[in-house]
Amino acid sequence: MPVTDPRIDAYIAKSAEFARPVLDHLRAVVHTACPDVEETIKWSMPFFLHGAKSAWPRPSSGWKRASRGTGNTRTASGTWAC
User: Fold this and answer.
1) Residue 56 is part of which domain span?
2) Residue 60, Cα to own-chain centre: how many angstroms?
3) Dihedral angle, C-alpha 61, 63, 66, 68, nearest 10 °
C-alpha cells in the first residue's frame, strides 16, 4: 500500500471537478510505477521523490524530471523512470 500525503488529498479535493479524476489517476500511476515513491507538496503543488530524483506534473509540458542538487531539469515527455 503506498504511503500518501494528506496534503495531496486536500490539493486534489480543492481542484476543479474535471481535474480530480485525472489527478487521482496520475497519482495511482506514479505509485504503481514506483511503489516506494514519497509524496510531498512543494511550490504549492504535488511533488514526488524517489531516491535522488524528483518529478512533478507540469500541465504544459508533461512530466519534469530533475536530479536533486544538480540543477539539471529536463522534460521527460510524460514518463518518469524509477
Assistant:
1) 6-75
2) 15
3) 130
Q: Is the pTM of this model over 0.70?
A: no
Tally of domains in the chain: 1
Query: For strand 53-58 and strand 38-42, is the pairing parallel, antiparallel, or unpaired?
Result: unpaired
Q: Which helix (H) or strand (E) holds 66?
A: strand 62-67
**How many angstroms separate the CA atoms of 18 and 67, rounded?**
32
In a domain, 19, yes or no: yes
Q: Is residue 1 part of a domain?
A: no
The per-residue pLDDT for range 16-51, each reduced to its tens digit, is 999 999 999 999 998 998 888 889 888 888 888 877
Residue spans of alpha helices (H) in the chain? 6-14, 20-33
